[in-house]
Amino acid sequence: MLNIPNILTGFRLFLIPVFVVLFYLPIEWSAFAAAFVFWLAGITDILDGYLARRLNQTTPFGAFLDPVADKIMVAVSLVMIVDHYAVIWITLPAMIMICREIMISALREWMAEVGQRASIAVSWVGKIKTAMQMTALFLLIWQYNVAMEWVGFTFLYIATALTLWSMVAYLKVAWPALNQSR
Asked: Is residue 42 situated within a structural domain?
C-alpha cells in the first residue's frame, strides 16, 4: 500500500492546506506561491498515475485516494476563487462544477453497486474538461495581470461547458440502468 504513487497522492493532500494558507497570506508574492503549489499538486497527479502504471504499483487504496485528492483540490480552489472574486459570473461555473462532481461521484458509486461501473469510464471530454479547469484555476489563482485573468475566465467557461457536456454523456450512458423498475 505504501508506494511512490500513493506517497505522491498523500503529498498532494498535504499540499491543500499549504495552498490555502499561501493564497490568503497578506504578502505580495502569495498569489504566485499559491499558484505554484497548485501547479505542483497537478504535476504530482500526473506523476502518480504515470508511475503507478509504469512501475505496476496500482493499488485499490491508490485508485480510491487519487480521485479524492483531485476533487478536494479542485473544490477547495473553486471555493477560494469564488471568495476572491465574489461575483455571480464566477460563482455559477464553480457551483456547476462542484455539483457535477458530486452527482457523477454518486452515479459512479451507484453504477458500481449494480455492477455497471465500467460503463461510465472517463471520456476524452472529461480529460479536456480537466485540463481546461486546471489551467483556468491556475490562472485565476495567480492573477498576475488582467490578460491572464481573462484567459482564466475564458477557460473556466469552456471547462463549465465541457462539465455539462460530460455530465449529460454520463447520464445518457447510465439512463437505462437508472430507468429500470425493480
From this structure: yes
Q: Are 92 and 155 within one domain?
A: yes
Residue from 13, 35, 39 nearest 23 by CA: 35
Which residue segment(s) compose the domain that 112 sits in? 87-182
Q: What is the pLDDT of residues 70-114, one digit of tens each?
A: 999 999 999 999 999 999 999 999 999 999 999 988 888 888 887
pLDDT tens digits, one per residue of 29-56: 999 999 999 999 999 999 998 999 999 9
Taking residue 172's Cβ as centre, other Cβ atoms within 10 Å add up to 9
DSSP 8-state code for residue 123: P
Q: Which of 45, 73, 101 is the last residue of a domain?
A: 73
In a domain, 44, yes or no: yes
The angle subtended at Cα 114 by Cα 112 and Cα 120, nearest 5°, is: 50
Q: How many angstroms separate the CA atoms of 43 and 35, rounded?
A: 12
Instruction: Measure Cα distances from 174 to 32, 93, 127, 158, 181 in Å.
Output: 41, 24, 19, 24, 14
Domain end among 25, 44, 73: 73
Is 44 within 8 Å of 65 (Cβ atoms)? no
